[in-house]
Write a structure and sequence with these properties.
Helix content: 55-70%
Number of helices: 5
Structural class: mainly alpha
Strand content: under 5%
Number of strands: 0
Largest sheet: none
Distance between the termini: 98 Å
Length: 212
């Protein structure tokens, strides 16, 4: 009887191999596997972009050129309105003084009443021009921090200015005044640039930008 034959049923059982030990944690110094990061693909929320110019996700940092031009024109218009208001006040005061002198010389008559009424009308127009000058300056200053209200007000202001300039152009052509013609053309141009700057996409993006 041979115990070396592996097919012999009466032979000793084959030696058993000890079970393999379960894998333990990696020892000190072994590289660790990086954590799994889910891909930022379809179905995951994306980081919202800052509103900016059309086709650009970056926030506008500087005022667009057309906006800067409109702002300068607002200051120029304000200066002209202030000068007109000041000269109108002096004119109203001069007419009022002349009316008072006429009353002292010729007594109370219809001419003095007309003079006082004319002085009052001119003074009212002077106050209107000074108020418009304050509005022009306020709109120009608010270009930096203002919102859609400033944009819409400036747009309407420019359209109305162009309309008044057009009416003045018709009157200047009727009376044949070259100075009035040039003034009306300038007023139309200024108002048109203001309105165009507010309607342009760059102007809309500027007033829609985030403010911190």
């Amino acid at each position: 009887m041979s115990f070396g034959d592996p097919n012999n049923p009466y032979g000793p059982p084959p030696p058993q191999q000890p079970p393999a030990a379960p894998p333990g944690p990696p020892g000190y110094g072994y590289p660790q596997a990086p954590p799994t990061v889910p891909p930022q693909g379809y179905g995951y929320p994306q980081q919202p972009a800052y509103p900016g110019y059309p086709g650009d996700n970056m926030m506008p940092q500087t005022m667009p050129g057309l906006m800067t031009t409109a702002r300068v024109l607002l200051y120029i218009v304000a200066g002209v309105q202030i000068l007109i208001g000041i000269f109108a006040i002096f004119g109203a005061a001069t007419i009022n003084d002349a009316s008072n002198a006429g009353e002292d010389t010729f007594g109370d008559n219809g001419l003095s009443d007309i003079g006082h009424a004319s002085a009052g009308i001119i003074f009212v127009f002077a106050l209107i021009f000074l108020g418009l000058a304050a509005l022009s300056i306020t709109l120009g200053v608010k270009f930096t921090r203002g919102g859609q209200g400033i944009r819409i007000t400036t747009m309407v202001y420019g359209i109305l200015g162009s309309l008044l300039g057009f009416l003045g152009l018709i009157n200047a052509a009727d009376v044949g005044s070259s100075a009035s013609l040039v003034f009306s053309l300038l007023w139309i141009g200024f108002g048109g640039v203001m309105a165009a700057a507010m309607i342009a996409p760059s102007g809309t993006a500027w007033f829609n930008r985030p403010r911190y």
